């Protein structure tokens, strides 16, 4: 469960923090140029904010589970996911600790993620993220003239990886050069989709935003990664 939350926090932020620089008009858009520009922009991204819509298609559910909220990231090691609907949840990673707060339940869960922190934030802001993904996935780039998006498909190179993730698809807006949507399909066939709007890059974020105002009487449960 907690590995899933960590993976979500890392992978989502990594893909969202990969806006593209505009290619020169004379230069053709290729997979290589896209990846190069992703790496360049990741290095420049100090803060990132967006609204998001999350949709989960699960075999055990008769209809998709839809959530919505806000996301914020600040280098080097702060991430906040704020779910507004269908229920309020705050998930904060800061200084080696992940805290998940359920305001309506007056409950919080806390877990030490220091041993995963380097990997989490390498995916969020470092140029090595794409290179590392390339170790496990083959990339396919689609540029259709009638589509407003470039599409990047990642397929696992090994059966072992495919048992965990069948594939990832990223939609990149041709006008803004930002990752506007992505989805990943887990090994069991469950699908998670994210769509991001009102994306702001390198706008100031007050550091107070990366604190959770836990009530004095909140029940905090210390958890361990299984």
Topology of helices and strands:
Elements: H1 2-16, H2 31-44, E1 47-57, E2 65-74, E3 78-85, E4 89-94, E5 97-102, E6 107-112, H3 114-125, H4 128-136, E7 137-143, E8 149-156, H5 159-162, E9 165-173, E10 179-186, E11 191-201, E12 219-222
Parallel strand pairs: 6-12
Antiparallel strand pairs: 1-2, 1-11, 2-3, 3-4, 4-5, 5-6, 7-8, 8-9, 9-10, 10-11
Helix pairs in contact: 1-3
Characterize the overall form. Answer: globular
Q: What integer value in Å does the Rg equal?
A: 18 Å
Percent helix range: 10-25%
Low-confidence runs = 19-26
Strand segment count: 12
Helix/strand order: HHEEEEEEHHEEHEEEE
Enumerate the strands of the largest sheet in spatial order, edge to edge or round the barrel: 7-8-9-10-11-1-2-3-4-5-6-12
């Amino acid at each position: 469960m907690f590995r899933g939350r960590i993976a979500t926090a890392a992978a989502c932020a990594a893909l969202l923090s990969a806006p593209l620089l505009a290619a020169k008009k004379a230069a053709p858009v290729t997979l290589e140029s896209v990846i190069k520009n992703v790496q360049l922009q990741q290095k420049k991204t100090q803060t990132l904010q967006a609204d998001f819509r999350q949709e989960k298609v699960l075999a055990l559910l008769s209809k998709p589970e839809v959530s919505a909220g806000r996301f914020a990231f600040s280098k080097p090691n702060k991430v906040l996911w704020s779910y507004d609907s269908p229920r309020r949840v705050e998930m904060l990673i800061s200084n080696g600790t992940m805290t998940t707060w359920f305001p309506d339940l007056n409950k919080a869960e806390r877990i030490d993620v220091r041993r995963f922190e380097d990997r989490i934030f390498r995916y969020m802001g470092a140029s090595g993220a794409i290179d590392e993904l390339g170790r496990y996935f083959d990339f396919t780039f689609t540029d259709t003239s009638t589509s407003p998006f470039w599409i990047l498909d990642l397929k696992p190179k090994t059966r072992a990886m495919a048992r965990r993730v069948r594939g990832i698809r990223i939609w990149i807006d041709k006008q803004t050069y930002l990752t506007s949507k992505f989805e990943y399909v887990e090994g069991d066939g469950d699908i998670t989709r994210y769509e991001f709007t009102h994306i702001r890059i390198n706008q100031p974020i007050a550091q107070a935003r990366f604190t959770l105002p836990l009530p004095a009487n909140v029940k905090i449960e210390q958890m361990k990664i299984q």
